[in-house]
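Re: the multi-chain job from yesterday

Posting the exact lines I submitted so nobody has to dig through the queue logs.
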Amino acid sequence: MRGVVELPAIAIFTIVAGSLIIAFFVMVSQQQSDIGKTNIERASLERFDALLKSAATARETQNNITVIDETLLYVCDDVSMRIEYESHTQKDFHNMVMFAPHKLEGGHLRVYSKGVDSPYRVTNILYVATDTYTVNSTVPLYEFPSNIEHAPAASAKRIVRDTGNPTRNTIVVTESPGEQLGTVHYFSPTDPAGAGIVYPNRELYYGAILAEDAQTYTCGLNAYLRQLRFVNKIEWLRAQQLYIDTDDEQCKLSYQFGPFETIEAITSDTSGFTLQDARDLVQAQREIAFLNDKLLRGDGCAILY
Amino acid sequence: MQLGEIIIIMIIFFFILGFGLVFFTQFVANQAHKERSTVNDLNLAETAKTIASLPELHCSQGGDESLYCIDLYKAQAFARTLADDPLHYANTFTGYRVEVRCIYPVCTEIPSFVLLDYTTPTAESDRPFVLPVLLYNPVAHQYAYGEIIIWQRT
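And the result, structure tokens for all chains:
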């Protein structure tokens, strides 16, 4: 009778203790597994983030990166510009001007950066492309990242991006003769007419090629114009301060604010960026460059940029 | 008597288990603290690099920029512009305060000033990251040795 009482007590103890130990280890291993998975995702994005930030700080770079074999989504909208990793981990690149296809399939990615001087340096534009990205173009792509293949296309001034659906991915670029600006048309089932969007310089033109659609390109263009406005304001305030602090009357003559005001007016107007705006922008930039050249030749004048 | 022994064994077992749990939790917390400290240091260094590479601040000669040289007129204009449009870099520098300080040789006409401040007044302050730079006054054509001091406050 006594043995009958003792045995269940030991058994109960063993079962309780065993269950607790097993539960503890299951819980810890489950936790570690979740942490490990999140860490891999985070590390992958952190590496990508570090590479983008590093590229953004250098005038001209080409980098390759291998991300784990998953799909990264590039999203650019009114709220932010971000890379999403399977839609739950994400990185925001609000202040970067970046162009990329919507889907960046895992594996090898190429990241390029290029500085934009307008005429003072505005930013470094980032271009992200997958390893297999091909651009066929009859337009000379002089400075386009050399690792991206490009070959002559059938019709003039027509760029076909080899990313699957030819209807969705066809763009036509119209260039103004002698200028580095023009209009880009994205043809898609929802926009068969391909509404024209302006590019004001070479760097944005390359961005237009890499952008998946009109909306994404416009988003990148707006980010560029925001940055241009910000930098222009700084250069403008600097010129005003130089005017105040300089005693030399000859120098003062070259501290003119008209071109800065023009750029401010163009970049503040959010109603739409037209070809005329692009031309006015280029003209204002030339005027600033001209004034700067005059100051460079002047005797001891502080230059504009 | 047997039941008493079992109870004592169970108490000892749960005591050891509890001790193990507390030890493990402490260990994990310490690891997390160390990791956080490392991440903070890396973030500070990365932010310093980003600040130092902002084209809005660099000394330049017709577009050619000098790295680690800050044009004082640009830096002061940058601070004013950012005060008017604080959202522009809010995303990049959230939780950071950056100051420009002149050190040597002539600093009377070159004041120290706050370049940007995205911290809250009540936030806890960590040790700052100091980046040596050249400060350039374009009107006087003078260079001075200075520092960019970056605080991360969370």
